[in-house]
Amino acid sequence: MKQTKQDLLIEAFQNGEQLTSYEIxxxxxxKNPTAAVSYLRLNGGYAIYSNKRVVDGxxxxxxxxxxxxxxxVAAGYRALATQAV
Length: 85
Fold this sequence. Notes:
Layout: H1 5-14, E1 19-20, H2 21-28, H3 33-42, E2 48-55, E3 58-65, H4 70-83
Antiparallel strand pairs: 1-3, 2-3
């Protein structure tokens, strides 16, 4: 079975990689890395965090897979509960 670009991206995150938008675009051929990350968050349920760092005087954002806080999980359950009514 052929893996999608999103499959390859989440596999990289699961392996502990932290990637910039440029790295995601060039490595996986994803034209809109921000949209791909949003898709994985909203449709895949992955807790992907963005961390800003200053590298050589330039702000750089790196994405990484993390563990959601209890507050985030609770908010998700509350959102689901309001949809069920």
